[in-house]
Amino acid sequence: MEAVHPSRRLKELELAARKGLGQHFLADRGALGKILRAARLSPEDTVVEVGPGLGILTAELLKQVGRVIAVELDEALVRSLCTELAAQNLTIVQGDILKLLPASLLSGVTGGYKVVANLPYYITSAVLRHFLESTRRPELMVVMVQLEVARAITAAPGEMGMLGLSVQIFGAPRIVCRVPAGAFYPPPKVDSAVVGIEVFPAPTVPETELVGFFGIARAAFSAARKQIQNSLAQGLGKDKTWVAARLEAAEIDPRRRAETLEISEWVKLWEVFRLCLP
Q1: Reduced to 3 states, what is the DSSP secondary structure of residue 94?
Q2: What is the pTM for the complete model shown?
Q3: Is the distance from CB of 134 to CB of 115 less than 8 angstroms?
Q4: How do the residues of the chain divide into helix, strand and coil, expressed in percent and rounded to 5?
Q5: What are the pLDDT digits (tens) for 81-103?
Q6: Of 84, 111, 128, 176, which sits with the fewest C-beta atoms within 10 Å of its C-beta?
């Protein structure tokens, strides 16, 4: 595919970026190169791309990997992709990624896969959960997200919120690079960042216990900036004394805030609470 600025390509297709779908098309080739390098691509790779849009990233992926499965919601863009990127190693799926199970998308694909995408910002958190909590998780995710979201995903204890915890239980995230708003057409109102997530072979908490674990985590974060004893008591509907006893068993000071806990402390907290909750 010829390197054409998104504004020109949209004009050729007689289309416009759809605000309701959060469409901001990457126009900066330097940022594109950083995404591709971070993904550590090889001819043996299978890549799932969410929101291929005009196919700028897709075209480069097709040159480097064995198979690309591109999921696009916009029917007009799907028609364009089918015309512009006819390739044996490309499968284009029209649909909502949140309604498509990764295992179904990858039917017939053996081995692992990677997710490489310029994510629609309004569904970023949902897409991350969709893949990380699925029965068939990727080995690596390299995604473009809002800078503020990137910082939340990679936050260390002291600043970690629910989003950071929900990603870091499954993998190790890092910010690859910052991408200014002007690198997109139309430019969003905020800067973005490329985030790489090295997904663990198995989550830090056993898969069968994830629902309960995240229930405790949501309770702990239910009252922002409150002491963890108070937020857990409020979120779980339990007496503070009952909560304090279990925090003591987990060797966690009840006066601390949820955002200060290390991942290992979250795991220890769950190990204590799971024995006394239905």
Answers
A1: strand
A2: 0.93
A3: no
A4: 45, 20, 35
A5: 998 887 889 999 999 999 999 99
A6: 111
